[in-house]
Amino acid sequence: xxxxxxxxxxxxxxxxVKSDETIEKIMYTVILALLPAAGAGxxxxxxNAATVIMLSIVTAVACxxxxxxxxxxxxxVKDGSALLTGLLLAMxxxxxxxxxxxxxxxxxxxxxxxxxxxxxGFNIFNPALAARVFLIISWPVQMTTWPKPTTIFSxxxxxxxxxxxxxxxxxSELLLKNNIGEAANISLIDMIVGNIGGSLGEVSxxxxxxxxxxxxxxxxxxxxxxxxxxxxxVIISAIxxxxxxxxxxxxxxxxxxxxxxxxxxxxxxxxxxxPITPKGMLIFxxxxxxITILIRLFGAYPEGVSFAILLMNIVTPLIDKYVKPTLFGxxxxxx
Amino acid sequence: xxxxxxxxxxxxxKEKTERLPIIEAKVPKRVVIPxxxxxxxxxxxxxxIGDAVKKGQKIGEAKGFVxxxxxxxxxxxxxxxxxxxxxxxxxxxxxxxxxDGTDEWVEGLSERTDYLKLSPEELKKIINNxxxxxxxxxxxxxxxxxxxxxEKKIRAVILNGAECEPYLTADHRLMVERPEEIxxxxxxxxxxxxxxxxxxxxxxxxxxxxxxxxEVVSRIPKQKASETYVERSGxxxxxxxxxxxxxxxxxxEVKYPQGAExxxxxxxxxxxxxxxxxxxDVGVVVQNVGTAAAIYNAVRYSRPLIDRITxxxxxxxxxxxxxxxxxxxxxxxxxxxxxxxEEPGKVIMGGPMMGMGQHTLNVPIIKGSSGILVLPKTAAxxxxxxxxxxxxxxxxxxPMGLMPNMLSICGELRIVDAGVEFKPMDCIECGCCSxxxxxxxxxxHFIRYIKNELSIxxxxxxxxxxxxxx
Lengths: 335, 470
What we know:
The structure holds two protein chains of two kinds.
Chain A: H1 2-5, H2 23-45, H3 47-70, H4 81-91, H5 99-111, H6 127-138, H7 140-143, E1 146-147, E2 162-163, H8 166-177, H9 188-193, H10 205-217, H11 224-243, H12 251-256, H13 260-267, H14 278-298, H15 305-322
Chain B: E1 23-24, E2 30-34, E3 44-45, E4 52-53, E5 58-61, E6 70-71, E7 76-85, E8 91-99, H1 120-129, H2 142-145, E9 156-161, H3 170-177, H4 179-193, E10 197-203, H5 207-218, E11 223-230, E12 236-243, E13 246-252, H6 261-269, E14 284-288, H7 289-301, E15 307-314, E16 320-325, H8 330-336, E17 344-349, E18 356-358, E19 371-376, H9 393-397, H10 404-412, H11 416-419, H12 432-436, H13 443-469
Parallel strand pairs in B: 1-16, 9-10, 9-14, 10-13, 15-19
Antiparallel strand pairs in B: 2-8, 3-5, 4-7, 5-6, 7-8, 11-12, 15-16, 17-18, 17-19
Helix pairs in contact in B: 1-4, 3-5, 4-5, 4-7, 10-13
């Protein structure tokens, strides 16, 4: 009995058990889902792509640690969120981006995009996208010079040859010839596997799709944003394509090219910057899709995914304010 | 079956005790019986130090309507009436009785065989006198729940046999071993409330309980009765029909918190209790299966509530389902189960999702103690928590359709007024949100803080208003 008296028992508020879900587990699972597409980038664009990825990740993690230390916060780099941001930014860059551009972008993502807002959970914009848009506006030339995909095994000097992305080609052909011209000749298979020009991580539509499905299957993301985002792009592009197929590319073209797959599955679904309820997610996804296709069809830029998601990030708090879950017992009040 | 939205599937961990028959715990040498074991006004001691008391003798008288008496659970002598540790965490006035070793029942307990013929008032009086409260853990005085205001027409009674809390198997064993008591208890409640339809909701992971209850229900004799119906033409018919109490045993989806009152009603009858309302607002009364058995024992054998079934599990050498006398100290039960099998870190009264952590083993088993769960030191720590990453997991699992993420932030920042927008008072504190949170945020704790601050505010406002009036 005396021995029992000495017991030191923990007293805390219920519940007394917790699931084994952690931030790390979520972040590293998302990273895992991105790896195949990142690998495809290295395959098509060679060692430069790997360098960009490494540089971006190292800078992001280092900046995160430095900022947390400087701001007196808990050092939480092992949660994987900075690593993920670094990887995502790299996947949104051309493989031949100069080293200083990568470092500036990655530092911007973590310092301006994330830490000055208060760190993970408080940022308004998706940090990687904020950085990408910052780079596009600041260094448009470096950000839109796209190496042609070869393969890692080819003898040609990688990055020696540059060319347009399918969306870039579409835009320029439309300006020059007032029709989709050469863009119609891009092979469907190339678009699916990623043998096209573009940011190093956005080209392989099929691997991004598989990664996204994996995340939905593991319920780390829900289907609402990707489906409404891509669905909106498909529907609107199909309408224009049906009206005038000579001037407008088909929905398949729009889905498989540019940053749509990467954006819809991995960037727009960022927890911190997207709505929390399924209904809110549908609205968010629709908004992303609408702005994307608007920019692609009528804007000055060939691609609009980044802008679309960033613009919708701004609306997220508003969506969350007005789209709330249905309270139990609220609907049938007075029944 | 539509079921309720949200919920979680924690590891149920019931294997240790789900097949162990209920055994009588040793009669303790000493019991500590708090005068407050229920929601409502504490009762008043009606014995003095030195008084000899018998098992089943009333030692505390209910004060007011929302209150319940307490009875001695052993026969012996009152040795102290003082403040003792209480499972709520605060010390509470308790009556201490040392056993005389005879374990004799108080005189005058009579058996009634025609109990179903008693009037509702008589039944209510018996239940009230027996000190019966909700044994599922909420401990609301049962006679109050069985006295709905006349304007609330009760159409169905649901017995709660979900037992969705992990680890606990007390209700499960009761349903398997004593289904007759439960079903008879339900018949008494139906009679008392003059209700036709009774349901017993059991999670589908207890097929043995479902089949035992179903078998007992099928044996209830049917009664001949006549029913009239009017044809369209206006001709009136009278026909003989067989009726009995209409009791159904319902297998429920295995999902926590299936046993939460509002969620149980939704899953069983697809009715939603309005926000801020009570089950009677949708014509339903819910009672725990253990309460029904206690009602039966009180009505049939005049036995007051002096014991209950408690699962003792976790890191104890021999986990058990015990029939325990109210007032038995937790330390006695741990000893009876062979002591700790591992260094204990937490001793929880109730289940792991909603139970209360105890700071000492010198607390008594009270009427609402469904289990004693000992967690090892390795599982007792409170993990460091992080900022909300808005993953939305808590929103998806919340069975009340709340936004626990926002409530937890308001609680953490102590901005209680901002929290009101997110309906903290609708929270049933089931713990699903805290369970799933990847940032390990103590969400329920923050919500409790908001709720508490709001009720303090409300009380103050009331005081002020009354002061102005006076």
